[in-house]
Amino acid sequence: MNSRERILVFDVNETLLDISVLDPFFEDAFHDVYARREWFINTLLNSQSLTLSGQFASFDEIGLAALQMLGQARNVRLSQAQIDNFTVTKSRLPSHPEVCEALEALQSSGFRVVTLSNSGQAPSENALKSAKIDRYFQRLFSVEQIRRYKPAFGTYEAVLGNLNVSPERLRLIAAHPWDTFGAMAAGLASTDRANRKRRIPAWQTT
After folding, report:
1. pLDDT band at 191 (very low <50, low <70, confident <90, very high)
2. Nearest Cα residue to 191 out of 29, 1, 15, 13
3. Of the residues 57, 111, 164, 176, which has the fewest C-beta atoms closer than 10 A?
4. Where does 19-90 sit in CATH, by number?
């Protein structure tokens, strides 16, 4: 396949947008900058747990619930002002420094580029617009459309259906191995942010 025939599907959170700007909030509230990692991991785990149990809540709701759970676990009482500050900062995440240049190069080279995010449709669109990178993407997809979170099969199949292309036409680019493994299980190619082509581990094919 000619590389230009490939449609590139970018994950959004952490892959394009830099959530490390939340570190000062977590350092101030929990006196531990690494609390941000714990919060995001729990947000992802809870989203996947909802999908496995046939339930759905917005990614923003899951994120706030994970934040409150973290506060309870660490015996930290968060004020409404702190929660509001967290929400505003999270809605205005910047892109990673290299993202604009990379997207510009892809666009100039003739690649079709779309996104697939765990965030809701409107929050995802607003976040990319705030980061000033929305202009690079032809389509913005959200798991909200099927009410299941990545790496559920259906999230990738929904993109295939909307674009009306075969799986081998798409390559997912994400910061998270679980996302790339899910994409490959659905028949897509995938690459992590370090540009290493991934293959499904042997234990996932047995």
Report:
1. low
2. 15
3. 164
4. 1.10.150.240
